[in-house]
Protein backbone atom coordinates (compact mmCIF):
# COMPACT_ATOMS: atom_id res chain seq x y z
CA UNK A 1 0.00 0.00 0.00
CA UNK A 2 2.88 2.32 0.78
CA UNK A 3 4.50 1.63 -2.59
CA UNK A 4 1.21 2.42 -4.25
CA UNK A 5 0.94 5.75 -2.37
CA UNK A 6 4.51 6.65 -3.35
CA UNK A 7 3.68 6.00 -6.99
CA UNK A 8 0.50 8.09 -6.74
CA UNK A 9 2.50 10.98 -5.24
CA UNK A 10 5.03 10.86 -8.07
CA UNK A 11 2.29 10.70 -10.73
CA UNK A 12 0.30 13.61 -9.24
CA UNK A 13 3.46 15.69 -8.89
CA UNK A 14 4.29 15.09 -12.53
CA UNK A 15 0.82 16.33 -13.48
CA UNK A 16 1.15 19.42 -11.28
CA UNK A 17 4.68 20.29 -12.42
CA UNK A 18 5.85 23.65 -11.08
CA UNK A 19 2.38 24.60 -9.92
CA UNK A 20 3.08 22.89 -6.57
CA UNK A 21 6.03 23.19 -4.22
CA UNK A 22 6.45 20.80 -1.29
CA UNK A 23 7.80 22.37 1.91
CA UNK A 24 8.80 19.88 4.61
CA UNK A 25 9.71 20.40 8.25
CA UNK A 26 12.65 18.35 9.54
CA UNK A 27 10.40 16.25 11.79
CA UNK A 28 8.51 14.87 8.85
CA UNK A 29 8.55 11.10 8.43
CA UNK A 30 11.02 9.67 5.90
CA UNK A 31 8.38 8.41 3.46
CA UNK A 32 7.09 11.98 3.07
CA UNK A 33 10.37 13.87 3.52
CA UNK A 34 11.84 12.16 0.45
CA UNK A 35 9.38 14.15 -1.73
CA UNK A 36 10.37 17.56 -0.34
CA UNK A 37 11.43 20.36 -2.68
CA UNK A 38 12.54 22.48 0.27
CA UNK A 39 13.21 21.59 3.89
CA UNK A 40 13.96 23.66 6.97
CA UNK A 41 13.24 24.74 10.51
CA UNK A 42 10.37 27.14 11.22
CA UNK A 43 12.38 30.28 10.45
CA UNK A 44 13.76 28.98 7.18
CA UNK A 45 10.37 27.65 6.09
CA UNK A 46 8.65 30.97 6.83
CA UNK A 47 11.21 32.74 4.65
CA UNK A 48 10.86 30.13 1.91
CA UNK A 49 7.07 30.50 2.02
CA UNK A 50 7.48 34.20 1.24
CA UNK A 51 9.90 33.51 -1.61
CA UNK A 52 8.28 30.72 -3.62
CA UNK A 53 6.07 31.59 -6.56
CA UNK A 54 4.23 28.26 -6.94
CA UNK A 55 0.44 28.30 -6.98
CA UNK A 56 0.18 25.60 -4.29
CA UNK A 57 2.45 25.57 -1.23
CA UNK A 58 1.90 22.04 0.04
CA UNK A 59 3.06 22.17 3.62
CA UNK A 60 4.24 18.92 5.16
CA UNK A 61 4.37 20.21 8.70
CA UNK A 62 1.77 21.30 11.24
CA UNK A 63 -1.14 23.73 11.13
CA UNK A 64 0.60 26.88 12.41
CA UNK A 65 3.31 26.45 9.75
CA UNK A 66 0.73 26.31 6.95
CA UNK A 67 -0.91 29.43 8.43
CA UNK A 68 2.44 31.22 8.27
CA UNK A 69 2.81 30.10 4.64
CA UNK A 70 -0.63 31.53 3.88
CA UNK A 71 0.14 34.84 5.61
CA UNK A 72 3.57 35.25 4.00
CA UNK A 73 2.64 34.18 0.46
CA UNK A 74 1.11 36.16 -2.41
CA UNK A 75 -2.68 36.42 -2.92
CA UNK A 76 -2.59 34.03 -5.92
CA UNK A 77 -0.90 31.30 -3.84
CA UNK A 78 -2.65 28.72 -1.70
CA UNK A 79 -1.25 27.03 1.41
CA UNK A 80 -2.31 23.40 1.63
CA UNK A 81 -1.99 21.11 4.69
CA UNK A 82 -2.36 17.43 3.66
CA UNK A 83 -4.08 16.49 6.94
CA UNK A 84 -6.12 19.17 8.71
CA UNK A 85 -5.70 17.33 12.01
CA UNK A 86 -1.93 17.93 12.00
CA UNK A 87 -1.83 20.50 14.80
CA UNK A 88 0.77 21.30 17.45
CA UNK A 89 -0.13 20.44 21.03
CA UNK A 90 2.07 23.23 22.33
CA UNK A 91 0.42 25.83 20.09
CA UNK A 92 -2.94 24.68 21.47
CA UNK A 93 -1.82 25.54 25.02
CA UNK A 94 -2.49 29.23 24.36
CA UNK A 95 -5.56 30.75 22.79
CA UNK A 96 -6.75 34.29 22.16
CA UNK A 97 -9.37 34.33 24.94
CA UNK A 98 -6.77 33.34 27.53
CA UNK A 99 -4.12 35.76 26.24
CA UNK A 100 -6.65 38.62 26.23
CA UNK A 101 -7.69 37.76 29.77
CA UNK A 102 -4.02 37.73 30.79
CA UNK A 103 -3.57 41.19 29.21
CA UNK A 104 -6.66 42.50 31.09
CA UNK A 105 -5.37 41.16 34.39
CA UNK A 106 -1.94 42.65 33.72
CA UNK A 107 -3.66 45.98 33.05
CA UNK A 108 -5.37 45.75 36.46
CA UNK A 109 -2.03 45.17 38.20
CA UNK A 110 0.33 47.33 36.15
CA UNK A 111 -1.90 49.97 34.61
CA UNK A 112 -0.81 50.04 30.97
CA UNK A 113 0.59 46.76 29.61
CA UNK A 114 0.91 48.33 26.14
CA UNK A 115 3.51 50.71 27.54
CA UNK A 116 5.26 48.22 29.80
CA UNK A 117 5.15 44.75 28.24
CA UNK A 118 6.17 43.45 24.80
CA UNK A 119 4.15 40.36 23.89
CA UNK A 120 6.34 37.78 22.15
CA UNK A 121 4.78 34.71 20.62
CA UNK A 122 6.76 31.66 19.60
CA UNK A 123 5.95 30.86 15.97
CA UNK A 124 4.32 27.67 17.33
CA UNK A 125 1.04 29.50 17.90
CA UNK A 126 -2.23 30.18 16.12
CA UNK A 127 -2.46 33.12 13.69
CA UNK A 128 -4.79 35.11 15.99
CA UNK A 129 -2.07 35.17 18.66
CA UNK A 130 0.42 36.47 16.13
CA UNK A 131 -2.21 39.09 15.25
CA UNK A 132 -2.47 39.97 18.96
CA UNK A 133 1.27 40.62 18.97
CA UNK A 134 1.01 42.66 15.78
CA UNK A 135 -1.70 44.81 17.37
CA UNK A 136 0.05 45.29 20.71
CA UNK A 137 3.54 46.23 19.53
CA UNK A 138 4.80 42.67 19.85
CA UNK A 139 6.65 40.20 17.68
CA UNK A 140 7.02 36.55 16.67
CA UNK A 141 10.13 34.48 17.39
CA UNK A 142 11.46 31.07 16.41
CA UNK A 143 13.90 28.78 18.16
CA UNK A 144 16.67 30.25 15.96
CA UNK A 145 16.12 33.94 16.50
CA UNK A 146 14.70 34.02 20.06
CA UNK A 147 17.85 35.75 21.49
CA UNK A 148 17.76 38.71 19.06
CA UNK A 149 13.99 38.94 19.32
CA UNK A 150 14.22 39.15 23.11
CA UNK A 151 16.77 41.99 22.75
CA UNK A 152 14.36 43.75 20.43
CA UNK A 153 11.45 43.20 22.83
CA UNK A 154 13.37 44.66 25.79
CA UNK A 155 14.47 47.61 23.67
CA UNK A 156 10.76 48.48 23.26
CA UNK A 157 9.47 47.95 26.81
CA UNK A 158 10.72 46.82 30.22
CA UNK A 159 8.91 43.46 30.46
CA UNK A 160 8.08 40.56 28.14
CA UNK A 161 5.07 38.26 28.03
CA UNK A 162 6.35 35.12 26.30
CA UNK A 163 3.94 32.47 25.02
CA UNK A 164 3.21 29.58 24.62
CA UNK A 165 6.54 27.79 25.37
CA UNK A 166 7.87 28.49 28.84
CA UNK A 167 11.06 26.51 28.13
CA UNK A 168 12.23 28.46 25.09
CA UNK A 169 11.45 31.69 26.96
CA UNK A 170 13.30 30.62 30.10
CA UNK A 171 16.38 29.33 28.26
CA UNK A 172 16.61 32.49 26.18
CA UNK A 173 16.23 34.72 29.24
CA UNK A 174 18.73 32.61 31.18
CA UNK A 175 21.33 33.02 28.40
CA UNK A 176 20.80 36.78 28.62
CA UNK A 177 21.58 36.68 32.33
CA UNK A 178 18.07 37.37 33.58
CA UNK A 179 17.79 35.91 37.11
CA UNK A 180 15.48 32.90 37.34
CA UNK A 181 13.37 34.61 40.01
CA UNK A 182 12.57 37.37 37.52
CA UNK A 183 11.17 34.82 35.07
CA UNK A 184 7.85 33.70 36.52
CA UNK A 185 5.34 31.23 35.12
CA UNK A 186 1.93 32.57 34.15
CA UNK A 187 -0.65 29.79 34.56
CA UNK A 188 -3.51 30.74 32.22
CA UNK A 189 -5.97 28.59 34.15
CA UNK A 190 -5.55 30.60 37.33
CA UNK A 191 -6.61 34.17 38.12
CA UNK A 192 -3.70 36.57 37.59
CA UNK A 193 -1.73 33.58 36.33
CA UNK A 194 -1.47 32.31 39.91
CA UNK A 195 0.93 35.18 40.70
CA UNK A 196 0.85 37.88 43.36
CA UNK A 197 0.87 41.55 42.27
CA UNK A 198 4.39 41.81 43.66
CA UNK A 199 5.61 38.85 41.59
CA UNK A 200 4.09 40.43 38.49
CA UNK A 201 5.64 43.83 39.22
CA UNK A 202 9.10 42.30 39.84
CA UNK A 203 9.07 40.00 36.80
CA UNK A 204 11.17 40.70 33.71
CA UNK A 205 9.64 37.81 31.74
CA UNK A 206 6.20 36.30 32.26
CA UNK A 207 6.44 32.75 30.89
CA UNK A 208 3.22 31.19 29.67
CA UNK A 209 2.68 27.74 31.16
CA UNK A 210 3.03 25.77 27.91
CA UNK A 211 5.41 23.08 26.74
CA UNK A 212 6.07 20.58 23.96
CA UNK A 213 4.95 17.04 24.73
CA UNK A 214 7.89 15.61 22.78
CA UNK A 215 10.70 17.69 24.32
CA UNK A 216 9.39 17.37 27.87
CA UNK A 217 10.45 13.70 27.70
CA UNK A 218 14.14 14.59 27.77
CA UNK A 219 15.70 14.71 31.21
CA UNK A 220 18.95 15.82 32.70
CA UNK A 221 19.57 12.28 34.05
CA UNK A 222 19.49 10.89 30.48
CA UNK A 223 22.44 13.16 29.74
CA UNK A 224 24.26 12.35 32.97
CA UNK A 225 24.06 8.57 32.46
CA UNK A 226 25.11 8.82 28.82
CA UNK A 227 28.11 11.00 29.68
CA UNK A 228 29.28 8.37 32.20
CA UNK A 229 29.36 5.80 29.39
CA UNK A 230 30.68 8.19 26.74
CA UNK A 231 32.77 10.91 28.41
CA UNK A 232 34.09 12.02 25.01
CA UNK A 233 30.56 12.38 23.57
CA UNK A 234 28.76 15.63 22.78
CA UNK A 235 25.19 16.57 23.64
CA UNK A 236 22.94 18.79 21.53
CA UNK A 237 19.35 19.75 22.34
CA UNK A 238 16.43 21.77 21.06
CA UNK A 239 15.54 24.76 23.30
CA UNK A 240 12.00 23.45 23.81
CA UNK A 241 13.69 21.07 26.27
CA UNK A 242 13.75 21.97 29.97
CA UNK A 243 16.33 24.39 31.38
CA UNK A 244 18.12 21.46 33.10
CA UNK A 245 18.56 19.69 29.78
CA UNK A 246 19.71 22.83 27.96
CA UNK A 247 22.18 23.80 30.69
CA UNK A 248 23.72 20.31 30.56
CA UNK A 249 23.98 20.22 26.76
CA UNK A 250 27.08 21.26 24.82
CA UNK A 251 24.97 22.88 22.09
CA UNK A 252 21.39 24.15 22.03
CA UNK A 253 19.52 25.29 18.94
CA UNK A 254 16.85 24.82 16.31
CA UNK A 255 16.34 21.71 14.20
CA UNK A 256 18.33 23.23 11.33
CA UNK A 257 21.12 24.18 13.73
CA UNK A 258 21.26 20.64 15.17
CA UNK A 259 21.55 19.16 11.68
CA UNK A 260 24.27 21.62 10.64
CA UNK A 261 26.35 21.21 13.80
CA UNK A 262 26.41 17.43 13.51
CA UNK A 263 26.98 17.39 9.75
CA UNK A 264 29.91 19.82 10.12
CA UNK A 265 31.41 18.05 13.14
CA UNK A 266 34.65 16.06 12.99
CA UNK A 267 34.41 12.46 11.76
CA UNK A 268 34.09 9.66 14.35
CA UNK A 269 32.35 11.84 16.93
CA UNK A 270 29.48 10.58 19.09
CA UNK A 271 26.32 12.61 19.72
CA UNK A 272 23.34 12.50 22.04
CA UNK A 273 20.45 14.47 20.53
CA UNK A 274 17.43 15.94 22.33
CA UNK A 275 14.87 16.48 19.61
CA UNK A 276 12.26 14.55 17.66
CA UNK A 277 12.97 10.97 16.61
CA UNK A 278 12.38 11.18 12.83
CA UNK A 279 15.01 13.90 12.58
CA UNK A 280 17.45 11.97 14.78
CA UNK A 281 17.04 8.70 12.84
CA UNK A 282 17.50 10.42 9.48
CA UNK A 283 20.58 12.31 10.67
CA UNK A 284 22.09 9.15 12.19
CA UNK A 285 21.88 7.42 8.80
CA UNK A 286 23.26 10.41 6.90
CA UNK A 287 26.39 10.83 9.02
CA UNK A 288 27.10 7.13 9.60
CA UNK A 289 29.55 6.89 6.63
CA UNK A 290 31.78 9.46 8.41
CA UNK A 291 31.93 7.25 11.47
CA UNK A 292 29.66 9.57 13.48
CA UNK A 293 27.31 7.97 15.95
CA UNK A 294 24.06 9.82 16.64
CA UNK A 295 21.84 8.67 19.51
CA UNK A 296 18.40 9.72 20.67
CA UNK A 297 18.14 11.20 24.17
CA UNK A 298 15.06 9.52 25.62
CA UNK A 299 14.71 5.79 26.35
CA UNK A 300 11.14 5.89 24.98
CA UNK A 301 10.02 6.50 21.41
CA UNK A 302 8.90 10.11 21.07
CA UNK A 303 7.83 11.45 17.77
CA UNK A 304 5.75 14.49 17.02
CA UNK A 305 2.52 12.51 16.67
CA UNK A 306 0.71 15.35 14.92
CA UNK A 307 3.46 15.90 12.34
CA UNK A 308 3.38 12.13 11.82
CA UNK A 309 -0.21 12.41 10.60
CA UNK A 310 1.03 13.74 7.27
CA UNK A 311 1.52 10.32 5.71
CA UNK A 312 1.99 9.23 2.06
CA UNK A 313 -1.72 8.40 1.73
CA UNK A 314 -2.85 11.90 2.79
CA UNK A 315 -0.18 13.48 0.60
CA UNK A 316 -1.18 11.40 -2.44
CA UNK A 317 -4.89 12.21 -1.95
CA UNK A 318 -4.11 15.93 -1.61
CA UNK A 319 -1.88 16.15 -4.68
CA UNK A 320 -4.30 14.15 -6.82
CA UNK A 321 -7.15 16.47 -5.93
CA UNK A 322 -5.05 19.56 -6.71
CA UNK A 323 -4.01 18.04 -10.04
CA UNK A 324 -7.70 17.35 -10.81
CA UNK A 325 -8.51 21.03 -10.15
CA UNK A 326 -10.15 20.43 -6.75
CA UNK A 327 -8.64 22.51 -3.96
CA UNK A 328 -8.61 20.57 -0.71
CA UNK A 329 -7.29 21.34 2.78
CA UNK A 330 -6.70 24.98 1.94
CA UNK A 331 -5.49 26.92 5.00
CA UNK A 332 -6.86 30.45 4.91
CA UNK A 333 -6.28 32.92 7.70
CA UNK A 334 -9.08 35.54 7.81
CA UNK A 335 -7.77 38.75 6.10
CA UNK A 336 -7.96 41.12 9.12
CA UNK A 337 -6.13 38.54 11.25
CA UNK A 338 -3.56 37.83 8.53
CA UNK A 339 -2.80 41.54 8.17
CA UNK A 340 -1.99 41.99 11.87
CA UNK A 341 -0.15 38.67 12.11
CA UNK A 342 2.00 39.75 9.17
CA UNK A 343 2.97 42.90 11.07
CA UNK A 344 4.43 40.72 13.84
CA UNK A 345 6.04 38.28 11.38
CA UNK A 346 7.55 41.11 9.30
CA UNK A 347 9.01 42.62 12.47
CA UNK A 348 10.61 39.25 13.16
CA UNK A 349 12.05 38.89 9.67
CA UNK A 350 13.40 42.43 9.78
CA UNK A 351 15.15 41.82 13.12
CA UNK A 352 16.54 38.31 12.46
P1 LIG B 1 12.34 24.50 14.69
O1 LIG B 1 11.98 25.88 14.31
O2 LIG B 1 13.62 24.39 15.43
O3 LIG B 1 12.30 23.61 13.49
O4 LIG B 1 11.28 23.97 15.73
C1 LIG B 1 9.94 23.75 15.41
C2 LIG B 1 9.31 22.84 16.35
O5 LIG B 1 8.13 22.71 16.40
C3 LIG B 1 10.17 22.11 17.26
O6 LIG B 1 9.40 21.29 18.08
FE1 LIG C 1 4.55 21.15 18.35
FE2 LIG C 1 6.23 19.72 19.87
FE3 LIG C 1 5.38 18.79 17.50
FE4 LIG C 1 7.11 20.83 17.62
S1 LIG C 1 7.47 18.72 18.30
S2 LIG C 1 5.31 20.69 16.30
S3 LIG C 1 6.34 21.89 19.45
S4 LIG C 1 4.11 19.18 19.34
Please provide a written account of the structure.
- It comes from Aromatoleum toluolicum.
- Its cofactor is [4Fe-4S] cluster.
- It is an enzyme of class 2 (transferase).
- This protein is of the alpha/beta class.
- 45% of the residues lie in helices and 16% in strands.
- The strands form three sheets. The chain has a five-stranded mixed sheet, sandwiched between helices. A five-stranded parallel sheet has the order 6-5-7-9-8, sandwiched between helices.
- The longest helix has 17 residues, at 335-351.
- The protein is globular.
- It starts with a helix and ends with a helix.
- The structure holds 1,3-dihydroxyacetonephosphate (13P) and iron/sulfur cluster.
- Residues 26, 41-42, 124, 142-143, 212, 238, 240, 254-255 line the site of 1,3-dihydroxyacetonephosphate.
- The site of iron/sulfur cluster has 13 residues, from loops.
Strands in their spatial order, largest beta sheet: 2-1-3-4-14
* Total strands: 14
Output the CATH homologous superfamily of the largest domain: NadA-like
The pLDDT mean sits at 97
Query: Total helix count?
Result: 16
Structural Rg = 21 Å
Structural class: alpha/beta
Report the end-to-end length measured between terminal Cα atoms: 44 Å
Give the overall silhouette: globular
Heterogens: 1,3-dihydroxyacetonephosphate, iron/sulfur cluster
Q: Tell me the name of the CATH class of the largest domain.
A: Alpha Beta
Low-pLDDT stretches: none
* Percent in helix: 40-55%
The CATH architecture of the largest domain: 3-Layer(aba) Sandwich
From the 3D structure, determine the CATH topology of the largest domain.
Rossmann fold
| Biggest pleated-sheet summary | 5 strands, mixed
Number of domains: 3
How do the helices and strands follow one another from N- to C-terminus?
A: HEHEHEHEHHEHEHEHEHEHEHEHEHEHEH
Strand content: 15-25%
Amino acid sequence: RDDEAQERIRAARARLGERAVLLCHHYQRADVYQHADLTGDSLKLSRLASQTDAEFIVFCGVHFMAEVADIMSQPHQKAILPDLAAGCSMADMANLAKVERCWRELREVLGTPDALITPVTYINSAADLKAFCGEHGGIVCTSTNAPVILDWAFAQREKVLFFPDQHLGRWTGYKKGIPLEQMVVWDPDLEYGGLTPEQIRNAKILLWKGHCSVHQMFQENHIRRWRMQHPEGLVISHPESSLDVCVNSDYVGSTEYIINVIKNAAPNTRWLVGTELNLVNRLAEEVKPEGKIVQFMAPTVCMCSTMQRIDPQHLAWTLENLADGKIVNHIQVPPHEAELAKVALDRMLAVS
